[in-house]
Amino acid sequence: MAEVSTAERPRLRTRYDSEIKAKLQQELGLGNVMQVPRVEKIVVNMGVGRATQQRSLLDGAVTDLTTITGQKPSVRKAKKSIANFKLREGNEIGAKFSLRGDRMCEVYHRLVSLAIPRIRDFRGMPPKQFDGHGNYTFGLTEQLVFPEIDYDRIDTVRGMNITIVTTAETDEHGRALLNALGFPFRRDGQG
């Protein structure tokens, strides 16, 4: 007999279904509720180029990403050799994972409410980093902004790229979605 999960849905997903979806449909002038944009997945990529000389740096990156999300990332390998960077095809040089579903909602909530405001001299994220298809990409210079990371246990500071992939067809729809979900964009007139 299969067990039934009694886990609650994340608050962000419940709020999206009950409030945000109808508000966005009206705001964007969409005729069908299925046209309303939603967050499809969050992709986090951490490149560790120095891992070719020191394997423990890649292990540390995998440990940090696992701590942040509770999901083990896949180790990425070089696709081709580059002699100037002492890189050979097949060398392990980074870690990446994609989050979907409830885990994605939890990580998004922690990212927006806890991690991003902890960035030094934070004045908001740049609103023009959309890719033309409603997806937003930004970088973090250190993993220490996440409260799950213990400062005493890290071996080196690592940055990461985070992409929020949406079903929006235009940047304006993607920006409206992220604004409705509380993403901290920089206000006009600031830096």
Describe this structure in words.
The chain is an alpha+beta fold and 191 residues long. It is built from four helices and five strands; from the N terminus they run αβαββαββα. It has helices spanning 11-28, 55-69, 101-115, 171-180, and strands spanning 39-47, 74-77, 92-99, 136-140, 160-166. The chain has a five-stranded antiparallel β-sheet with strand order 2-3-1-5-4. The N and C termini lie far apart (58 Å). The relative contact order is 0.19. The model has no long low-confidence stretch (mean pLDDT 84).
Low-confidence stretches: none
SSE order, as H and E? HEHEEHEEH
Tell me, rounded to a whole number, the average pLDDT: 84
Name the shape in a single word. Answer: globular
* Largest β sheet strand count, sense and barrel closure: 5 strands, antiparallel
Number of helices: 4
Helix content: 25-40%
SSE-based structural type = alpha+beta
Number of strands: 5
Widest β-sheet, arrangement of strands: 2-3-1-5-4
Radius of gyration: 19 Å
End-to-end C-alpha gap: 58 Å
How big a fraction of the residues is strand?
15-25%
